[in-house]
Amino acid sequence: MVSTLRSRFCEAKYGPDDSTTTIIISALKPSSAYSLSSSPSKTFVAVIRSISHTKLYDRGWNGKKRLHLLAASITMGSQTRHHPSSTPAIEVQKLARKMFAEEVSFRSKDKDISIAKALLCVAAEDEAFMAFNRDMDTRSILNERRESTFAIESHSEWDKLEDIPLAGKNISGWMTELDTIAKEVEAELVSRDIGCHLPQVLEAVNMVLFESRCFKRYPVLVDSKHSYLHSVISSGNCSAIMFSIMYIEVCMRLGITMVGARVGEDFLIWPQTGDFEELFKVYSGRSLFAIVNGRCVEDPRSRAFDLNSMSLSGLEIASKRDIIGIALANLIRLHWKRASRMNHGLMLTSPLRPVNNVSDASVKKDGSSKAPLLRPQELRLAIMASERLLILQPHNWALRRDHGMLLYHCRRYGEAVQELSICMAFAPVEEAEILEPFVEKLHLLRLESSWKSLDHSHKLAIP
């Protein structure tokens, strides 16, 4: 019986984990469905050792490796448990991060980087992370209610970046959406019998984005969906930087190279040209510069209002890596703001004040310190964005300091010590002097947390 069962299942790869899992395996015929038989004589209970990944591998028709999840029940009947790390969402997160790192790798020339692909990888990883959390919540509810089993979703092979799933499509599908928008602009030019002069092309881009597709540009970060490219494409609601990226991508498909630079809090773009005076000539009541950038260049309170052909030529043009970095920095700022919503005015670097200079607001009546209450999912999303930003700028000490502070707020003290120690090696002397006592405090917090975990394990130990 045992040998028959073993011959009907693929060989699984198991690691060094010592945990044991009871798996109820059905003695099924080759043509039968993957479900537990109601007959006790047709079921066999086997105890196997497994690691967190219970995966089966086989080869497809083209010889490529495909990953399937082992559907198995761990309970005596209705309840199903499945280790989190074997879910498709985890695989998507790992692959999306890997593909992002490859896209922005310093081995690639800046001109060969696709801003859209890189940001779609960011969206795919974050969407998979949130889907994983939702899945865990659902499993917990079903486990509490002792309800029926839920299906374990399998996925096909993901050998290329374009195959990564994202909100009902794959990355290739979202790239096709950008191609479609560019074709709509071309159709608009043909329908109006307009030539390919630059002002008319940019006006046609505005016509398609603002009128046909009802795009809305929000100057203030409000909703995280406005900062993810796939959501921007589908809904039309976007932050200022994401609208600029949309404009760059659409114009690139029309053969127009757009460049940009930071001006204060704004990121301004314009067509690459050797004649900057042409950008400020008025067409149909507005300059080319205003057609592309909107109201921010027409607002007297904005620094962009005072720009002219001379000052524009002196701006430092942002590279594609810089633009991706600006989008990631906005994500960090947005997710931190949402994570610390219950703590008005809490800055990421607030704890860097001297250790003995604790304000009254941070101390409870009983004298104990009061840790800020933060939203864990938003905090984790901020950390993920910070990790990607460090891939782009690994030697930026300020970014590494902020990353270390995010880890501190997440109570990952060991990792925070490591990041802040690296930061101190690159930071200016005055910044290193501020960080040094805080890092010493983190060492103590790490030791304290390890002692608490040991004490907790001793209390749970059975004599």
Automatic annotation (TrEMBL):
**All residue ranges annotated as the Protein SirB1 N-terminal domain in the record:** 176-325
**Name under which the protein is recorded:** Protein SirB1 N-terminal domain-containing protein
Organism of this sequence: Amborella trichopoda
Q: Which lineage do the record's taxonomy fields give for this organism?
A: Eukaryota, Viridiplantae, Streptophyta, Embryophyta, Tracheophyta
